[in-house]
Design brief:
The chain is an all-alpha fold. The chain contains 10 helices and no strands.
Length: about 240
Amino acid sequence: MSFAPVLRAEWIKIRSLRSLLGALAAVFVSTTAFSALAAADADDSDPLYSVFFGIAFGQVAAIAFGTAAVASEFRGGALRLTLSAVPDRDRWFAAKATAIALPALAVGLLTGLVTLLVGRAALGASAPGWAEGLRGALGCGLHLTLMALFAAGVAAVLRSAVATLSVLVPFLLVVSFVIGDLSGSVADFLPDRAGQVALHSSWDGALGPFGGLAVTALWTAAALLAGAWSLRLRDA
């Protein structure tokens, strides 16, 4: 079977599961809502991050989306049925990752644009300029997509939504809320911290906006490769 029909089948799975559609909706709602609240009570120290503050919550929903999309295959023998139709495991996993990435990117970019518009209205004269704001909106969409794919790769290794979320969600909460705004350390190279550099007006660490996204992309690629390797070696 060629790639296109496999991708179509995986897209049908995603759009037919309410939990996955709910996770995508949560990406949009949580990011825009918490960003609006932060922008309404922001100072002038980093107006761009004030606009996109809610991504710390939206990325948790993105991780839930990527996790659920893959982990659902390991319940009730679903993966065995899938592989009977698509014996090439690499092709199937590539189609699954693409089916996750496309809606995540669409929702992420929409979220970034709406968040920018709401944040600029809330900040008024202190709002970031359009060039900087659009860079942030693009970074928001890419970061949310990468985090969904990162979770998908981890879920393919762990084969459990509970195990994946039990690892990733506490990790994100610790990095985002305990380490906080510290920069210039190894924490800058962790996947969620690196990707969010694009959402800051200025940054004291070693990474620039798109360098940070590149680091997150490397984490994501490593997770997806580990997931593909696990699928090759283990029984369905």
